[in-house]
Amino acid sequence: MLGGELKNFVSTLRVLVDEAKLTVGPDGITSRAVDPANVAMYDLELSAAAFESYESSDGLLGVNLERFESVLKLAKKDDLVQVSFDTSTYKLLIVIDGVEFTMACIDPDSIRQEPEIPEMELPINLTVEGSQISRAVKAADMVSDHIGFRCVEADETVFIEAEGDTDDVSLRLIADEYESLDAADGRALFSLDYIKNISKKLPKTEDVTLTFGDQFPMLVDYEIADGECSVAAMVAPRIET
Amino acid sequence: MLGGELKNFVSTLRVLVDEAKLTVGPDGITSRAVDPANVAMYDLELSAAAFESYESSDGLLGVNLERFESVLKLAKKDDLVQVSFDTSTYKLLIVIDGVEFTMACIDPDSIRQEPEIPEMELPINLTVEGSQISRAVKAADMVSDHIGFRCVEADETVFIEAEGDTDDVSLRLIADEYESLDAADGRALFSLDYIKNISKKLPKTEDVTLTFGDQFPMLVDYEIADGECSVAAMVAPRIET
Amino acid sequence: MLGGELKNFVSTLRVLVDEAKLTVGPDGITSRAVDPANVAMYDLELSAAAFESYESSDGLLGVNLERFESVLKLAKKDDLVQVSFDTSTYKLLIVIDGVEFTMACIDPDSIRQEPEIPEMELPINLTVEGSQISRAVKAADMVSDHIGFRCVEADETVFIEAEGDTDDVSLRLIADEYESLDAADGRALFSLDYIKNISKKLPKTEDVTLTFGDQFPMLVDYEIADGECSVAAMVAPRIET
């Protein structure tokens, strides 16, 4: 697999956790990571097709992401990275341009269990270039610790907005500026820290889909690794006072 | 107005102060900023012609420059930035590529008054590329906390020089290396911190004019915003012992 | 002499010491620097031919490298730097693009004496591109504080390897990947800090020669300044437990 894409996979999980359970199988690798405060979650599905060659039976690995990420720093963006798992020693073997790393895995049972996800009806669905969200998040960061996503159905418009003690900021997205919108009236407020970290990993020039509702959690969906890895983030809202 | 130019205007004032009074009027915006120790001063005159379109009645605004500067970070160099003032809410509205900031102004009376400037006769006038001054300042910084500007009339030469405990540094500017010189014998010594901060904002490849005299303040004059904003800095000398 | 090359000469010595004795003479400049713990040593020989023009009688100068290095920061890579020594004031005069620095020298007797170097038989001799060593050192740094160099005579192979508490790393260099090898069985272990600092100064795309033996010191030889400056580093091994 290309170094840049594997780095992206690992660093996305690292936004929320330092250790992760990877579920491996013949079709690829999946992982669900939930932050310690249970506010945000990532679901990643990395297809076998993302690899030059891939072979795996079913299994569960506990991986120290921090260590994995530091090993991957040795790989340039276009270096092929070779990863294999030795079931007898419970170690990962990572080969980057002739350098071999042997990395011990962690007992997956020692890693925090993810919570159950409730079923939700989220009526608002916005698809927009990742850079639009990043820009609004950067702007919000200048005035507040929170960020709101608000949809006005009649105007087919979404506002990403933040209110500080003295200053406010707002990005209005009208029809020309988004790819598609299922509109409904509603607004949800989020802790800026979580949105900021998620926003840093968004693809800049590719589409990102936000799904939210009035005072409900928000889903952020997009693809990485040339379409072969789907990323789904979910963030719990803050109660507005 | 272009983001890069407005950033330059605001960051120049920020060299000396965190809050500034902007005097607005039909012809443009002016501001005088003096540092808390009354050692250095900036006079900026930003012409209405620096803007794509400009309209203003006479008024006085108190602006938090730190906050203004951080908002402008969102603008790329060539982004158009739109600034308007709401006289009813006493707030600035800044629009950068679709993102709207609403920024509260400060009561101008709460900002420190600038002192009166005495009339001075400064016989030495040197016009030279900004990079020459920056280089000499960087060099001086390696050996001392002070920097001297000295003119020798007979040689039509200016020395920018610094003396440390064990090491010295000197840049000699002779006829070929400056644009023009009104020579007179004299030397003035300055605190390096102030000259260093002023030097960081100098245009590198454009002309800068230094006007000074024996043990007198120095004026540093140049233009930014494609000639539509004049900058005049003044620094008080240190008494030589 | 070119700024980039002189910076390289000074910063190589700076890896181990802050002050150095430079032995100057008609043929060039030599210096031997040993770190305070006597673990590593540099021998540099800078030929007179490295300079555009060079003239010197025999002498010994004590130089504050930290200060020298900071002065050289003013020089761009291709700036000519002019260095002369005033025997009456015991000061160096450094001229960089019109800026003159006068820098006091240090009494060479106040600088630590270098130890005697014992004669050694080192049977293994590997010549390889500098980047190969740098890569292995970076990888070792992720798992351990030590790094081993091991040669297997029968395979004509050298391993650069490190063992951590849970993770290991290894770079295997076989016939295609090095320039030349005098093979013998043996392994030597070194403190990673020293190897890391030496590795940072290695030329990336030029050949570097490693000479070592079983549990013996290692020599690292290469050239800088377009072949006009030879660098020889020596590092003492760590005893394996």
Automatic annotation (TrEMBL), chains A, B, C:
Which segments constitute the Proliferating cell nuclear antigen PCNA C-terminal domain? Answer: 117-228
Which domain of life does the protein's organism represent?
Answer: Archaea
Alphabetical list of Pfam families matching this protein? PCNA_C, PCNA_N
Matches recorded under NCBIfam families: PRK01115.1-5
Q: Describe the family membership recorded for this protein in Swiss-Prot or TrEMBL.
A: Belongs to the PCNA family.
Quaternary structure, from the entry: Homotrimer. The subunits circularize to form a toroid; DNA passes through its center. Replication factor C (RFC) is required to load the toroid on the DNA.
Indicate what this protein is called per its UniProt record.
DNA polymerase sliding clamp
> Lineage of the native species?
Archaea, Methanobacteriati, Methanobacteriota, Stenosarchaea group, Halobacteria
